[in-house]
Amino acid sequence: MPPQPQGGLNKPGGQLNAKHKTILGCGGMLAAFLVVGMIAAAVSPSEAKPAAAKPVPAVTVTATVTAPPPAKAPKPSPTKPAAPQKARVPDMTGKSGDLLVEALQKAGFTDGYRATSFHDVSGQGRTVFLLTNWQICDQDPKNKTVPVTAKISVGAVKFGETCP
What is the pLDDT of residue 20? Predict the structure, then answer.
């Protein structure tokens, strides 16, 4: 009898045909999947049920609270309504609109921007938006003390233009 070559499956040198390779490849993948699954199961936290809590005896507490008698509210004393606060409006002619807003806030107006009403006096009817780009031509009032709730009317043109 002739000697059989080493490698099995009656193939010289241990060569496998495509069918055997496919079977061994699928089996190898299945084995790898199982190994990875077992490792993941060993590493992941278990979903063991928590130990049952021991019952705690019920305790009933009864408390009696008595409220003190209501205090009499003091009678409101008649007071004069507070006079509106006043502040001096500086003359900012020739300066930028944002400087007027800052000066009004420093003078005591709560919101210098809302205290002003800007309008374009160039005759072009533009909206005064970015106050740093606008030069004050006139304002009403100026150099007067007025209530901080007063509205200051400001006529302005863009810097580089002449006031009418």
Answer: 57
Main-chain dihedrals φ then ψ at residue 13, nearest 5 degrees: 70, 20
pLDDT value at position 129? 87
In angstroms, the CA 101 to CA 109 distance is 9
Give the pair of three-digit tokens for residue 43.
């590493």
- Helix or strand (DSSP H, E) at 104: helix 97-107
pLDDT tens figures, 50-93: 556 677 777 777 777 777 777 777 777 777 666 568 999 999 99
What's the one-letter identity of residue 33? F
How many angstroms separate the CA atoms of 116 and 78, rounded?
A: 35
Query: DSSP H helical segments within 51-117, as ranges?
Result: 97-107
What is the value of pTM for the model shown? 0.49
Q: How far apart are alpha carbons 96 and 67 in whole angstroms?
A: 64
| pLDDT single digits (tens) 113-162 | 888 999 999 999 999 989 999 999 999 999 999 999 899 999 999 999 99
Residue ranges with strand state E in 27-158 = 86-89, 116-120, 134-140, 144-147, 152-158
